[in-house]
Every structure is written in C-alpha cells, then in structure tokens.
Amino acid sequence: MRDKTLTAAVLTCVALLLGGCTSASEEPAAAPVVINLPDGRQVTVDGTPARIVTLGGQWTDVALSYGITPVGYYDALEVTTGDPAPWFGNRLAESTAIDPSGDIVEQIAALEPDLIVAPGFAAQASQFDKLAQIAPTIDKISGEQIDPWEDMVTLMGVILHEPDKGREIVAGVDADIADLAAEYPGLSGKSYAFAFMYGPDQIQAFGSATDGAAQLFSSLGLVVAPALAEESARTGQPRFPISTENVPLLNSDILVISASTPELEDRLVGLPSYGNLDAVKNAAVSLLSQTDITAINEPSPTSIPYVFDKMRPALEAAATE
Asked: In this structure, are strands 33-36 and 202-206 parallel, antiparallel, or unpaired?
C-alpha cells in the first residue's frame, strides 16, 4: 500500500492565540486548519465543523465513516438511479438531498453549513466563489481525476481534529484489502481492464496506474492491461474513449466492465471481439451494474468492501487461471 500522507493538499494547523485564562472546565478552542489546494486556493477552516455539506459520493461516505451525517448531500448515483448508494444504508435518512435541477447555492445556504466539500462539482458549476461565501469550500485535493480516498479520509481527520480516527478508518479498509489479496495470491502480476460502455459505439477505458480508482486494483497485485497503459501514455489521458472496434484493447486477465443501460450491456456481450477476450473465455469478468461500478470508480471507505464482494467470482477465476 502507498504512503497515506496527503500528496497534494498541504495541511497546516495554525495555533490559535487565546487571550486571558480558561477555567479547568473549559476546553481550549480547536486551532484553525489551513488547506493549500493544488489549484492554488487556500481554505481556512475555523473550529470543528458540525454542519457539513458533501457534494459527491466519496465525501459523503467519508463523513459517514466518521459518524457524521451531512446536513446536505449530492449523490449523482442517486440522481441517476433514484436510490442512495447501497453502501450508505439508511444513514442519510436525516440528511437533505441537494436537487441539481434547482438553485444549488440557495439550497446549500439554507442548510447553514460550516463546511462544504465539493470535488470538481463546484468548479464545473462555476459556483465555487458563491459557495465559498457561505462556508469554507474544498474542491479537488489532488491532481488526479479521482481523488485518492485515503487522502480524503486523512484530510477530514485533520479538519475534525481526529487524526487518529482517520488512521483507524484507513487501516480498517487496508486490512480488508490485505485479507482479500492474501486469499487470492494468484492475482499478483495479473493484468486488468476497467471500462464503461456509455453509447452504442462509445466505451470509456481506464489506463492510468496513478488514478484514484487504480489503487484498488494495484492493492491486490493487479496491473493495468499493457495495451490500455500504452494508450493512456500516448494520449496523456488517464481515461479515454474507445470505439467497439477497439474492444481488443481490453484484453486482460480480469475484466471489470459496466454499461449504462441493459440494451448497451446486451450489445457489449454480443460483440464477437468481446467474446474473444481472455477474461471472457476464462470467466474472469465482473459485469457490474452502474451502481456497482460507481463504487470502484469513486472508491470510498465502505464502497470498497462492497464492490470487492461483487467482484469476488471474477477475482477467484483470474487468480486460479
């Protein structure tokens, strides 16, 4: 496993100057936390946030892992499917879902948050400055397309002044992954392909070993399929589109793939080139639902064990081949 220190967000705890004396029953105020983000923004969080808005499934899961129910949240998966991510359980029952079709800033302001975490969401909506006027707002914390989940957990621990809790959460997930890797040692050195079919002739393939989702595969000893790694290096893109005629690029020991609709899934599995893939021939394919693939596309503390359980048959097949 890689070093769990933050690689992009530089965190500095600034000592809070307190005037006068405090009684034995009074606790000192929590020191402000200054966060230097990779886009050059600097965010200061005073005290310990209690009313947090999470605009994204990863941050929502991170907050829940700390036992904090966000006062408001946005989950693209729930907007698409109509249901919260299954790994959340019923823990969002008391939280307000942000409606992306409405005035997002107005909805968030009404919740009176003291922290907003919005990876990519705020920037894409051109509303970061408006959100930052409501409460300290954190955008992406890394230069990767998907922020590493461990960095998100670590950052939240610093913000909440609970770094030990952060280390405990990361260690728990790491232990689950290590147990799975030990169960299937044959996965070490095997290749994988990860892709999503979103149109009749459009497949998004994944080729970067540094992307946030890639670490889930590498933690099991898997490596990116060579053809996909070469294409990623050629294009300079961690994720890139391929047409159905380029399905052979997905050739690998294990294939993890999904389609946006049942019709597209039928089209995918009906392609002769799909049937000729090594992983398909060896039953080492994890054909996931859109919900399931989100768990690995945007990994977080409870989505990881959830999706690995879904992938177990394919992992076993690849490990024994």
From this structure: unpaired
